[in-house]
Amino acid sequence: MSNQLSRRAFLRLSALGATGLLAACAPKVVKETVVVEKEKVVEKPVEKVVEKEKVVTKEVVKEVVKEVAPKTPEEILAGLKDKLGSPDKPRGWKTTLPDLPKNVPYKSPVVITCTRRVDAQTTFCTGDNLENNPWSRMIKALFNVEYKVAWTWSTGDEANQKYNLAAASGDIPDFLETVPLTIFLKMVQAKQLEDLTDAYDMYASPRWKAIWREYGELPWTWSKVDGRIYGIPRVEDLAHNDCLMYYRQDWFDKLGKPVPKTFDEVHDAAVAFAKGDYGMGAKGSTIGLLWSNAIYATWYGSMDWFWGGYGYLPHHWQPEGKNLMYGAIRPEVKEALGVLAQWYKDGVFAKDFYTFDTSKAMQNVAANLCGFHFTPSWGANLDSVKNDPKCKWAVANIPIGPKGFRRRHTENNFRESPFAFRKGAKNIEAVFTITDWWDQLWHDSWRRMHGWEGCNYIWEGDKIKPAGISFQNWTPGFVGTRGSGFIDPKFPAQDIRYRREEWGKIPPEKRDAMQEYVLNDPYGTVKVNDDCRLMILETAGDGVMTKLQRIPTPTEVAKGADLAKLRDQTFINIIIGQQPLSDFDRFVADWKAAGGDEWTAEVNDWWQSRG
Hints:
The structure is a single chain. By secondary structure, this protein is an alpha+beta fold. A hairpin with a 2-residue loop joins β11 and β12 (228-229). The radius of gyration is 30 Å and the shape is globular.
C-alpha cells in the first residue's frame, strides 16, 4: 500500500510571467501559481544571481494556493444506506477503514464476471443478493468495480460438473473461485488460464508477499505448473481442520467419570452414553461418539486421531525407508480396522454412521444426541445449547493411542483448489488491489470490522446480538468466500489473543456492546471454541501432514477415484461386519494391481527427485 503522501498528485502546473535576465537594477516580482491538492503555504526565498558586473534579482513572493483533496473512504461511503460499525450509538464503536490505493476509484467502471460457491449459509439482508449487498456496494463506491456472477455451485459434484462444462465449451468467466484441482490442471494444459507469475509479483502488496514468504513453496504446492503460477491459493488459518475432543461436560458429570485420556476410556464413555440414553431424542437414538462417512479425516466428527493412534492415517503418504508408502496398505491400519469393527459392534457409533455427511453430523450434535465428537475449533455447537439450556461443552486434547502415539491429521493451509483467471482476462490488478485493501479492513483487529449494523448484527436497547448473516459469504475472493480465505494464516489466533489481551483489560462497565457480547459469551460457546483454536496451535506437534505435497500424478488423475472407492468400500464393510478382517490382505493386492503400484512408483520418482 502507498503511504498518505504518495496518494497525492499534482493536478496541473502553470507559470505566469516571463523569466530571463533583467537589465534593470530594481527587482521584479515573478508570480508562480501551482495548483496542489490541499491548502498550503508556498514560500521560496529571494535568490540573487551575479552575472559579470550586473546584479540580477529574482524574487518569488509568498503565496497561498489551494487544492481539492480527494475524499476519504469514510466520506465516500457516507452516501450509502449501509452503516459500517455503530459510531453514533452510546455503546457503539467506529470501524476504521484503510487508506485507498492511489489509483482508485478507477476512472472507468470495471466489471468482472465470476463464479461463486453458495449454500444454505449464504444468506443476505432483505432485498440483497450476491451481486448487490453491503460489501458489493462498498466496493462499487470505493473502487468503481462490480462483480457479476456467471454461475454458482453448492456441492463438489456440482462444481466439477459446471467447471468441466465451462472448460469444454470455452465459455469461461473472468475470475474463477476455487477450481477443482484436476480440472484446474486440465485447463492449464489447454491454455485456458492466465499465467499469474508476473501478476502476483507486480500486484500483490509487499505486506502480502512477506507473509507468504514465511511458508516457502507451500503456497504454490497446487497452483504452480512447470515453474509458473496459474492460480492463487485459498488460504485457511493455521491448523484449520485439526480436530480436538469436544465433550458434553454435563454428561460426564452425570456419568461420574473423568474426561477420557486413552482409547479405552473413550470406548467406555461412549458405550455408557448410548446405553444410558443420555441424548434428547427417542429411546435408542443417543450416539456415544460421532462419526461420519468421511472415515479418515473431516471437519466435523472426525476419526483421524484414532488412525493416528495406531501410527498412520490411511489417506497419507509417509516415509518407509528412503521412499514413501501409502497408509491404507500398512499392517498398522489393518490392526486399527479390527478395533473399529469391535467398537461398532459394542455400540460406540451410530449403526448408520457411514450414511452421515458433515451436515447430518452437525444436525446430530445440534439435536443433543452426541456425547462427544472430534472437530476443529467450531465444535461447541450454539444450537445445541439453545436447544438444551443444561448443555455445557468443553474441549480437551486427543487421547493417547495404544501404541503411545498422539497423532492427528493436519493440512497444508494453502488449499488445493485455487482461484484462477481465464486466459486473456482483464482487470486482474483490480482483484489483487481490492483483496489487499479488504484483508486489511477485515483482518487488522484494531480496525473493528464487525459487519454492517442492522444486517450482520442488530441492536436491542444498548446491547447487540448477531443477526445470523455472515458478510464473509458475500465476498468473491481471494479473501472471504463461503469456503473462508485469508492472506495471513495466523490471523484467527492473533484475533483471539487481541480480544483477550486488549479487550480483556477494559473494565466491564467501559466496554462497548460488541466487546461485551464477545467477552461475556452468554452461551459459553465462543470461549470454548477459542480455547480449542489456541490449544490446536499449542499442540501443533501432534499434527501429521501427508508428505505428498504436489499436484496429482498421471495415475492419480486417471485411477485415483477408483482406488479410493476400492479402499473406502472395503474398510466400511470390515467395520460394519459385512467383510471379515482377513479381506484386508486381498484389498492390498487388489489395490496394487488396480494402479496402486503405478501410483507408488510415480510418487517415489518425485520424492527422490527432491533430493
